[in-house]
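User: Structure please.
Assistant: Input sequence and predicted structure:
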Amino acid sequence: MARASLRENIIEAAVDRFHSHGYAATGVKDITDAAGAPKGSFYNHFESKEALAVVALERYGASRRLDMLTDDSVAPLARVRRHFEFLRDENLEAGFARGCMVGDMAVEVADHSEALRAGVFESFTYWREALAAAILDAQEAGEVSKAQDAATLAAFVLNAWEGTLIATRTDRSAKPFESFFTIVFGVVLR
């Protein structure tokens, strides 16, 4: 098996550190220490911590299992539910200690860094579009009402999800997940 490159190790460490500690609380030394890399080597691969954070957002987004939303072997509404069940289970495994890195970056630094704001915007746009496509499929299959367009529903569901993650972290409870699934799948996506 090929050995991971130093750049890849730094990216993986950055995703983990940004996700668990946030952008501001994570220094370049924290990242290089976690990657097992000398601090000086960081700048051979990245212009700045901000530039690394943009790459980390992309890498994190790739781990969100958006492919679940396009799996045509599963009924459309079931795809949407499975996607959020995957994300819920991941958060339960983390013991309510992590939310969504994209949402966290949006709150923490998007107002202070145009590069990170753009990265957050792109991440949410890609996710929202994938979700909207699955909801549209569910509407066309007769699983979801066409009273609202799929893009509006997707935006609402994504916003509700991000709020749910905040609530689970503050409550240290799965109860907000129960509310999300009850309202989203029992009321909004009907």
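The chain has two domains: 6-58, 64-188.
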